[in-house]
Design a protein that fits this description.
globular, Rossmann fold, single chain, N-terminal domain of TfIIb, four-stranded antiparallel sheet, alpha/beta
Amino acid sequence: MRDFDPAAAFGPAVSAWYDQTPRGDETVAVDLLAELSHGESALEFAIGTGRIALPLAERGVRVDGIELSTDMVDQLRAKPGGSELDVVVGDMAATTTGRTYPLVYLVFNTIFNLLTQDNQVRCFENAARHLTDDGVFLVEAAVPSAWLPSNQYVNAEQVESSYVVLDVCRYDPATQILDENHVRLDTGGVRLSPISCRLAWPSELDLMARLAGLELVDRWGGWEKERYTGEGKHVSVYGRR
């Protein structure tokens, strides 16, 4: 996508409306993360506005974060309890907090925001660097086929009387890059929210984990430990080999 800067993808405009579209699975996600952290501590890569971190912290888990966007961190800080979380601004593939945790987690397809295989591998290596000896790294992501009815498409995500939201995508199978733009049309005009992602199948993520000295411990089809079917999304848990 020409003129697209991944570092600016979650700037002031996106961070301002980000929490207006909750996923609806935050509670069950926090339930599983609290279990895997043993009620102790956790590190969230790409902590964002704290939609997962803050309710997890309310369970008594110490939650630290790494986040590239200062605008997303500003939204986090403005929420009750947000100023109490220790958040380091930086690249989740390289930045360190200097601590280790029973749980490091990366949710909502965010592994795909790293646009090269090398950077995705480095993210796994950075996660391993932050794990205690018996700690685990959890990755939640879509199975690529769930996003790709074809190599390019337009999907009507929302159709309301006062606005519509279109998802416009183009996928390059050679680079595994998905260029996507969420287009909102309403009486006030047009709002564009572009994003580029490098899609990776679960099997490729498993190899990345092995390069980082980790191995697959569990894989589910969702946060409630549903059976993984190879469709939709996966919640994968990696531990030391």
